[in-house]
Design goal:
Chain A: TFIIA is a heterodimer of the large unprocessed subunit 1 and a small subunit gamma. It was originally believed to be a heterotrimer of an alpha, a beta and a gamma subunit. The complex is a heterodimer. Chain A contains 2 helices and 3 strands. By secondary structure, chain A is an alpha+beta fold. Chain A is elongated, with a radius of gyration of 17 Å. Chain B is 68% helix and 9% strand. In chain B, strands 1-2-3 form a 3-stranded antiparallel β-sheet. Classes of the chains: A alpha+beta, B mainly alpha. At the A-B interface, α1, α2, β1, β2 and β3 of A face α2, α3, α5, α20 and β1 of B.
């Protein structure tokens, strides 16, 4: 089962990357081990999103830019509204990066 | 609250973002333990990793309550956050700030590596200096008056030679680069760029160039080099100024450029001598002063437009602007045509040079006029770029798409397994549907 590295860009992924960078920089762990940790994070994060998250969201906005490259959709929405179960958030501009859900076998 | 959260992780049917994150952290740590052991890494390191990770998560505001007690800011957030997802709304402000700082730090440190290439240049620059010194004293001694002090101080000489050299080469802009090219390369290469580039300062530079190289390559190069330069700058003057013109009184006006540079002492004694004097005077005056003087004179003599352009270029940053100009024009015209043919061609060089000046003006004018246009264009591009960049730091959605459809300008998409980072706060979703028009 494959898992996307996409979520490394999230705050939790960046936090992990930062932490690993520190440990690799001061020689505590090897870069290879850091990569293994990141790969495990990819797997765990993908699983967690599939299994632990139940909420649904709808969003609207003005599509400023769209791009489909290497099976990755990139949208930039302006004046976007995100509606979740109990809240509505407005953002001036948001970037959406989406990999193909079908490529990863579930 | 943190404890509550920790307990709540697995139990809650609709876990909050922080609980999911903490579960991911735990899952990763547990699954990586074998790898750590196989590499012989101490278990404490794994705990350190977990602590670091969670700390950074809390600093980023992604996790609201500290499971470990490390985070100071967490408690306020933690109270609201863990119980219900609604509480998450309160968090964002502090979280965003904290979150941004680490990301910025992370991103930038790797990028600033551009500087190193310049440093190696400096040593090259230093090496050339001794040569010019050796050259100059011979010439200078007869002239004596003003130049002598400059000569004595080797350090100053080096500096001045630096200055002229930079503009001549075209530059890449750096003084060191110019010197390097001079020393390493045959003179013809040097000469070519100099005439085009030197217009305002070019005379000084050329003189310097000649002085350094004179021993090896004497008269021919002088004439070739200087002539195009003078013409370019002084539209009035003709190619072979130095020897003929300098010797003769009438040429003084056209020759003013070099003399003014030498202004302190520059009077036409001998062709070479005059050039040297000019060099030294320029050196004494400092690289910049002669330029301004020259510019002022040119302004009086020539038309406003040319002068303005030159002044602008010189005033702002002489080297970079010239470089840009030279780069454009050197490729086609300068090098082979002027240097190789010898004296005869300088005249065409003059002709060519003047139009080039006009071009330069155009370029500068365009630059003045265009920047708004270019800026606008850039702004548009920047907007796109910023759009790419800003959302990453501000509002970003990472997900997987199941379906994306479009009819005319109406778009619909269904996403799943997403992480939304909005207003500094992370929100997870299993599914999301979006509708937007282009």
């Amino acid at each position: 089962m494959g898992s996307y590295e996409l979520y490394r860009k999230s705050s939790i992924g960046m936090s992990l990357t930062d932490a690993l960078d520190e440990l690799v920089t001061n020689g505590t762990i090897s870069p290879l081990l850091a990569v293994k940790v990141l790969m495990q994070f990819d797997k765990s994060m993908n699983e967690a999103l599939q299994q632990r998250v139940k909420s649904k969201t709808t969003f609207k906005g003005h599509l400023h830019t769209y791009r489909f490259c290497d099976n990755v959709w990139t949208f930039i929405l302006e004046n976007a509204l995100f509606k979740t179960d109990n809240e509505i958030q407005h953002v001036d501009r948001v970037k959406i990066v989406a990999c193909d859900a079908k490529i990863i076998s579930r | 609250m943190a404890q509550v959260k920790g307990q709540a992780k697995e139990k809650e049917p609709h876990p909050s973002t922080s609980t999911v994150y903490l579960a991911v952290v735990e899952d990763v740590i547990q699954n990586v333990r074998a790898d750590f052991q196989s590499e012989g890494v101490d278990e404490n390191v794994l705990n350190e990793l977990q602590a670091l990770w969670e700390l950074k998560l809390m600093q980023a505001g992604a996790v609201e309550a500290p499971v470990t007690e490390a985070a100071p800011a967490a408690p306020a957030k933690g109270t609201t956050g863990p119980v219900t997802p609604v509480t998450d709304l309160n968090v964002p402000y502090e979280a965003t700030e904290e979150y941004q700082t680490p990301t910025v730090e992370m991103l930038f440190p790797p990028t600033p590596q551009t500087l190193p290439p310049q440093t190696p240049q400096t040593p090259f620059v230093m090496t050339p200096t001794p040569q010019p010194d050796a050259m100059t004293p011979q010439v200078m001694t007869p002239l004596m008056d003003i130049p002598s002090p400059a000569l004595t101080s080797t350090g100053e000489q080096i500096m001045y030679q630096y200055m002229p050299a930079g503009p001549s080469d075209n530059g890449s802009g750096g003084n060191g680069l110019d010197l390097d090219t001079k020393l390493g390369r045959p003179q013809p290469y040097m000469q070519h760029p100099s005439p085009w580039m030197n217009k305002p300062r070019g005379v000084d530079v050329n003189l310097d160039m000649n002085a350094t190289y004179e021993e090896g390559q004497e008269d021919d190069e002088y004439e070739q080099e200087e002539a195009p330069v003078t013409k370019d700058f002084f539209t009035l003057s003709t190619g072979k100024r130095k020897r003929e013109e300098i010797a003769g009184g009438p040429y003084i006006q056209g020759y003013n450029m070099p003399q003014t540079d030498g202004a302190h002492q520059a009077c036409p004694f001998n062709d070479q001598a005059a050039s040297y004097i000019a060099k030294w005077a320029s050196e004494k005056a400092g690289g910049r002063n002669p330029v301004t003087e020259i510019l002022s004179e040119e302004l009086a003599a020539e038309k406003d437009v040319n002068v303005q352009t030159i002044v602008r270029t010189s005033s702002s940053k002489c080297l970079p602007q010239r470089d840009g100009i030279d780069d454009d024009y050197d490729d086609g015209v300068a090098e082979e045509d002027y240097n190789e043919p010898g004296e005869e061609e300088p005249q065409p060089a003059n002709e060519a040079a003047t139009p080039k000046i006009a071009k330069v003006e155009l370029v500068t004018g365009d630059s003045d006029g265009e920047p708004p246009l270019n800026e606008d264009d850039d702004d548009d591009l920047d907007d796109n770029d910023q759009g790419d960049e800003e959302p990453e730091t501000e509002h970003l959605v990472l997900a997987q798409f199941e379906k994306v459809t479009r009819s005319k300008n109406k778009w619909k998409c269904t996403l799943r397994d997403g992480i939304m980072h909005l207003h500094g706060r992370d929100i997870l979703f299993l599914k999301a549907t979006g509708e937007f028009e282009f």
